[in-house]
Amino acid sequence: MSEMKKLNKELGLFDVFTISTGAMFSSGFFLLPGLASQYTGPSVFVAYLIAGILIMPAMFSMAEIATALPRSGGAYFFLDRSLGPLFGTIGGLGTYFALMFKTAFAIIGIGAYASFFWDVPVRTIAVMAVLFFTILNLIGAKKTSGMQNFLVVFLLLVVGTFIIDGIVSIYLTDIIEPAPTKEHFTPFFSEGFEGVITTVGFVFVSYLGLTQIASVAEEIKNPERNIPLGMLISLIVTGLVYFLGVFVMVSLINPEDFARDLAPAATATSQLFRWLPNNSGAYIMTAAAMAAFASTGNAGLLSSSRYPFAMSRDKLFPGGFSKVSKLGTPIPAILLTASLILFFILVLSEEGIAKLASTFQLFIFMLINFSVIVFRKSKIESYDPGYHSPLYPAMQIAGIIISFILIIYMGWMAIIFSTLIILVAVLWYKYYVRIRVQREGAIFHWFALLGKYQHPELENEFMTILKEKGLRHGDPFDETIIRSRITHIHKTTSFEKLVEDVSDTFATEMHIRKHELIREFMATSPIEPALIIPEVSLLYAKHDGIDHPSLNIIITEQGIRKPVSKGGVSSEDYIKVFFFLVNPAKEARQQLRMLSRLVDIIERKDFVKEMMKHDGHRSIKEYLLHNERFITVKLIKGTEQQEMIGKQLKELNLPSNVLVALVERNNETFAPTGNTVLQEKDVITIIGKPKSISQLYEKYKWEIHG
């Protein structure tokens, strides 16, 4: 597989929260509540709460796939790799246009609110905003998220004050005149159950930003933690703000006026913020509304621009859109997206866009929920999510049913619009994509259980993603390297004889059957192409009845002839370094993560030469460990570490998160225990967290063994 152009990992948990939250706050709070109330009356704030609950299956499914496959493109990439390029094209183009419509609508809102207080052309302000956000996105995702963080924090402060002041003024003081009456809440469900469901579908668009974070998953640090946690926190905060904020609006605004109000937040604010001079509250709320639209527009441009980038990288879009600048941003994709958003702002009417976009997103959510089922049923071992959706598969089935019902209530125009986008995507796939892409999704691996075709390159790609994600907390990679057996072979032997000898060693040490190991070491799998590196061979096996991984490293200067195959071409190579890894059978995905880490090490420059020049076991193991996670110290009298000589390891005053992993004594290397007594001239290898290792380095830097 050719080397893939990568984006910088710059976004942390707070960035995930603000991008997701910023993409939700705009029309949902500042424009839609009054319009939505005409479908269900005062119970509109309940509809917001229900919509927040009903999006949870899609959120859980999106979080699971995003932690397994943190790649730009979001829904497109997930659908392509699960259901194949056809559905990837449908999901990619459809979601791309839906996001751009929603972004254009939000940016128009900036001009609309600005026009309430200043005599400025709405679309002129919107065009200027697009240009400003484009520049931010060209500079980099971190710069974009920095702006996003400011906007969202300001927005939450103002809206939070609005809610607190509203509840206090309504129920704890008598400053609201006339006071809210039962008429504001009667009848509570003006159109019955059907009205509530219609309203839920109408305001569902308010939460769509929740899943937009998946489109920038490739740029998120520690995605297995930050994606699901950031999305969950964002949903809780946004849901509470919608529920309580709209409740305050219902309490303060006459029901008939509320149904026609395009700026209910500003109207409600006119009765609040009495503790501020003049009309300051209205100005502050207008500023908050503009910040909300700005954050949605900014996050929308950021996330939507990753769709042509990801689709171009997969040959579903012209190749130029996958180019990345020196700053790590996809410039052509950003410029294309910004240009289209400008076109929509200047040419199209914003009425009904949110509803149409929401309908197609509901269709995408159906497919995303189904994709989780496909990935799990496909039995692809390298599909390794750091977060698993709860209540599988009931959660996904419920999500599919919910989306289907809400689509029906969105009306025929919305359904026709979605069908049109699907038709365009199908035609694009037929006449542009199909002749360029030879790839199938994980669903063919599911079909493989029935003897159907599967696409082996998919496992290879997932293995590459696994390598980029790195080890998971708790994976015993360092411990396995430390315990590993290293053997130098100086005589000629065959590959088959080597496998037999190593299997015999494992069988003796681990009390398992030799012939089963031989069979597994000699077998091939779909991830094999990802493990083929010149002069190096990675062989692996799994077995029940063992409780930890075990590694044998074989080094031979002469090389051992071994058959290899890659890309359908078979050949032979002289292997000089062999890694034999055995894991517990229940830890199949852990084995893949450890193999991917080994590949990462093996791909270092001059790896084989470096392995050959190390003659001691300690130096080889140190070379294989993370450089920033270990130091080696020689115990010499008259130095800082003299205090260690003659003491047991358990008596040493070392940081709690470090470990003396190896001791070299008289040219022999062994793994010590807590009772091991250190002696003068011992060379000890200490591993641990980088921060603690750095502290020890500063303490012993003049006595580091070189």
TrEMBL record:
Protein name, per record: Amino acid transporter
Record's bilayer topology term: Multi-pass membrane protein
Domain RCK C-terminal positions: 618-702
A Pfam family of this chain: TrkA_C
Family matches, as InterPro entries: AA-permease/SLC12A_dom, APC_superfamily, PTrfase/Anion_transptr, PTS_EIIA_type-2_dom, RCK_C, RCK_C_sf
A cellular-component GO term for this protein: membrane
Superkingdom of source: Bacteria
Keywords: Membrane, Transmembrane, Transmembrane helix
UniProt GO molecular function: monoatomic cation transmembrane transporter activity
Location(s) in or outside the cell: Membrane
